[in-house]
Amino acid sequence: MRVGIRIRFIVALAIVGHLLAGGAVHAADYVVKIGADTQSGRGVSSLICWFDHTCHGELKELGLQVDIDLRRAMSRIARLRLHGSNFGCCYFEYGRDQTAIDLRAALHQEPIFKDAKARGGMIVNERVGSLYLKFRLLSPDQDDGRGSGQPI
Q1: What does the alpha-carbon distance between residue 57 and residue 47 come to, in Å, rounded to a whole number?
Q2: What are the DSSP calls for 66-85, one per residue?
Q3: Strand partners, 57
């Protein structure tokens, strides 16, 4: 009987240890404030995000979705993906749907493009605006969503 209780206790400790070590039980790691200024208008959003998980955001009024990947092991580089609700819109320079940004700068500005009409047998990309991002690292005891922690 005592062996069964010990085994249950050890299993329970292992589960709690795994959850705590794996980061499954913690507050947010960082906040991203996103803004866009385009030909269609302006939009802003704020995201609460975790390291090593894709952070999804949306600027509904502009029909833009943004995905951000920030790995704890490489916390100075964020991978950014952009999707538009209209075909041919929107992406970054050179037709890329993703880019990497260096987080050592306080404010990030990324030009946004869309496909324009073919001219002389080539598709010409048209700049339609800019995407702005500001990252803030949250303290472990701080999860207020206002980004009042330290800049990344």
Answers
A1: 6
A2: EEEEE-GGGTTEEEEEEEES
A3: 66
* Integer Cα distance of 147 and 107 in angstroms: 13
What are the backbone dihedrals phi and psi of residue 94, each rounded to the nearest 5 degrees, phi first?
65, 25
pLDDT digits (tens, 9 = 90+) for 19-39: 444 444 456 899 999 999 988
- Residue 94 CA from chain centroid, whole number: 21
Task: Say if CB 106 and CB 132 are below 8 A apart.
Answer: no
| Distance (Å, whole) CA 102 – CA 152 | 10
Structure tokens at 94: 């050179």
Give the angle subtended at the CA of 13 by the CAs of 9 and 15, to the nearest 5°: 120
